[in-house]
Amino acid sequence: MTPAGSSLPGTTRAATATTPRTHQEVFPALAEQVGHARRFLAGILAGYPAAHDAVLCLSELASNSVIHSASRQPGGTFTVRAAIDDGGSVRVEVEDQGGLWGPSSSENGQHGHGLHIVSQLACSWGITGDSATGRTVWFELECS
Prior knowledge:
Number of strands: 5
Low-confidence stretches: 1-6, 9-16, 105-109
Order of helices and strands: EHHEEHEE
CATH architecture: 2-Layer Sandwich
CATH superfamily: Histidine kinase-like ATPase, C-terminal domain
Structural class: alpha+beta
Largest sheet: 5 strands, antiparallel
CATH class: Alpha Beta
Helix content: 25-40%
Number of helices: 3
Number of domains: 1
Mean pLDDT: 83
Distance between the termini: 13 Å
Radius of gyration: 15 Å
């Protein structure tokens, strides 16, 4: 869909490629907003075969933003971007507000598997940005 490590806006495309349909929404970085982000993406991807996998990956990344990044501070947000091309491929990005990744509030071992889940379901994925300017974690799936 887009070159590895690039964001949705301003990416260069081959002459034969079509412009993807893009969607974006900003959510307060609260645990209950992860469900709203899932519903946002599910609505966009309704009818796509890999929609369930995309929603699961988004859930993991949005949860990481809410739990581990500076977005968890009062007033923090995370941004979800999704782009679907005419061939059915989808790219989803979750942008946080950077900061050092904080420890999980749970000691029961139920945390720490989100990026592994994304790596197993996505065709490709990566992280851009840094702790000072904010991070964007993205993944791509073939949804056709």
